[in-house]
Amino acid sequence: MIDRASVEAVLNAIPDPETGKGLIDAGVPKGLMVAEDRAGFVIEVPANRTAAYAPVRDAAEAALKAMPGMARVSVVLTAETAPVGRKASLSPAAVDQGRAKAPVPTDRPAHVKRVLAVASGKGGVGKSTVAVNLAAALARSGLSVGILDADVYGPSLPTMLGLSGQPAYEDGAIVPHTAHGLKAMSVGLLTKSDDAMIWRGPMASQAITQMLTQTRWGTEDAPLDVLVVDLPPGTGDVQLTLIQKTPLDGAVIVSTPQEVALADARRAHTLFQRVKTPTLGLIENMSGDVFGRGGAEAEAGRLGVDYLGDLPLDASLRQAGDAGAPLAEGEIAARFDAVAAKVAQKLGL
Ligand SMILES: Nc1ncnc2c1ncn2[C@@H]1O[C@H](COP(=O)(O)OP(=O)(O)OP(=O)(O)O)[C@@H](O)[C@H]1O
Ligand SMILES: [Mg+2]
After folding, report:
1. What is the pLDDT of residues 34-85, one digit of tens each?
2. Which residue range is the domain that position 238 belongs to?
3. Ligand 1 centre distance from Cα of residue 322 (Å)
4. How far apart are CA 63 and CA 248, in angstroms?
5. Which of 37, 49, 75, 205 could be disulfide-bonded to 241 (CB atoms 3.0-4.6 Å)?
């Protein structure tokens, strides 16, 4: 377990080039996030100071990675950006200011018929892989589909769909990227860095609400049929805040067959029950010899939710994700087609 105090101590041992003080004392890290085995923060500096702070970012990243038990570190160096337009202010600083305002309304995104969450109780179970390939399968069935990467801990859509570059703004709306027939937005595209962005809870939900409601997902003439949202893994406060503020029509929960992952899937289902979002079903990922098989189906029975099918542990899925494209054909793509058909039917599409 990584704790905040030891992370801060490690960071404070690194001097801030501007003031000579330790990074923490100098107030350099913004949005410091410390979780069980991960930590991350943002360094935001004027554009002409990014070169001076690049070694600081590297030193901080290396020092945090060297901490025992640390699995993932993300230090993002961004240049302070002037707001591009009235609604285009998605920089962390701007998002942070928004915190003082009234609670964010749970607006539905305009011209989006259904919002579907892909969730998991536990990290690393293949939630993003499922979200991307399920979205692609829904698109293959003729629906118009968007995908929103709301995984503030580790946005993976930029890699899995080969997205890069900050989104454009037009008339105060964010123009989503288009990739593999999907409209796509990721919390990972909101910074200038290639690194993942890590947001504090309130910042995260504000940013995601903005991405949901201010992205031009569809138009009056061409509405989006379904927006797939890749939620951050886990069932903590961040997830609760996000799903409370996100108008979800249904959720699918991804689990591996192992007992530990299934217990987490149960917690995810409970979380959705709390916010009255129907769990459309459970998907078993990485099914097969290594992790066993059938656990998710049995668990779905115990929870009284539908079982949507299993996806084998298969190198082609990982390779497709690494290469930035969903699977387009073959046996596993066909399995996603079957899952997509059930999901579309449950969403009334
Ligand atoms: N069925 C599968 N067969 C083989 N590899 C898989 C499968 N599903 C996912 N993977 C691989 O496992 C890794 C984790 O998957 P993914 O990033 O989709 O998980 P996640 O639940 O979104 O993780 P995180 O909690 O970090 O967001 C990736 O390298 C992915 O390519
Ligand atoms: Mg993921």
Report:
1. 878 888 787 877 767 878 888 998 899 999 999 999 888 877 776 664 333 3
2. 112-346
3. 10
4. 39
5. 205
